[in-house]
Amino acid sequence: MPNLKAKRDAQVAQVESALKNCAAELVERALAHFKENPAPKSTPRGLRDILGSSVVAHDDLWTTEDEERLQNDCASREDAFAAVQGSAQLLTAWKSCIQSMRCSPLAIISPRHSLFVHQEATRARGQNLATTDGLLWPQSLYTELVTLVSSPIWLGEPLALSAAIQFAVICRTDERRPWRMPCVTSCQGMEALKRRAMRPLDVSPSDTLEEVSVNVEEAGNGLSVMFQLLRSIGESVTSGSALGRAEGPVKYEVTVQDLKSIREAIDSLQIGSAAPVVLPTSVSEALAKLGRASCPPSSAELVDFHRRSWLHERRLATRDSRQRQRDSAGSRRLGESRGSQDEPREFSSDRSDNGQLQPMLGQPRCHWEIDELSSVSNSDIFLDNLDESEDVHQDGAQRDEEEDGALTRQRRAERRRERDEEDD
């Protein structure tokens, strides 16, 4: 016990020494944050949001077949999960992430955000990580991650940190393909950047950010601390070879240097005076360390926490990907519907005697009825069609097939009569 007390006294002394270099208001704000947000308890309700529910929901975004494949993949990595048990650095990272962001380390560097630890980083000197199958990261990466999650600059939002990590990798690799920014916008600059990042970049990421900041400032709008942080990252990161023409899905491979770049960018933020915008990372980490020990998981819980989080993030990544594909397909269909000037493309331009449009031969009929097109827009028709239930679509498909056959026979009979009349 005396040794523990001495260690704690030394930590407190270290914090008190570091605080002398910080603005008192910011320190009080950080201390109040930790007081108002105590460490969560290891209860099923408290852990559900972090690790996912123990009961897996199945639907068209995540099927029972998907779950079976994932569980088989997990079972094949059991030795790798066992190797996680003795990692003190991983345990510290878990406690820090739960304390400061109420999430797991795997939710920050997550496939949901196209973030993966660089393969070279897993071959760290003096560490045998070959048997962990990517489930265990280098000690230095955990050290940097613990420092970053402790900073109040993220306001406890893990998506903000994930976005900063993405941007650090993007700047280092000069990645110019569209960037799907995960964090919520915090100012006009972030909103403009998010819109611009949806298209391929013509210049480097840092130059793109600078262009956005100039336009926003010229318009008289301020820039948030998060935007200033991204600009600081862009100014400090040395880019490598451009990957703008790379094929395949975007994959941001994180290195220890990327996290260091973010830490250095945080510590470099200034507001034109001696007081920093945010606490130095060394101070915020020292403050967070005081209450970290009581946070879950315990050493005995580590493997179970890590396994559940690994499974949870992969389910979410698949769900998010399929939902984006569905949304994209829906947007394209809606665009096609709006792009048609007067008529849905399922119909010909010929009208019958009563003014109604006639279905084109060989084309599927729509599931809606049209009496007066002049008062109904194509987008309204499309959106109404999206609201129909699944069983209506299935019944309608069978009915349409029958009607199409009857319609074809009717048209052929009409043509024969027309030819007979012409011959007469």
From TrEMBL:
Instruction: Give residue spans, biased composition: Basic and acidic residues.
Output: 316-353, 415-424
| Disordered, as annotated region | 316-361, 382-424
Q: What is this protein called?
A: Uncharacterized protein
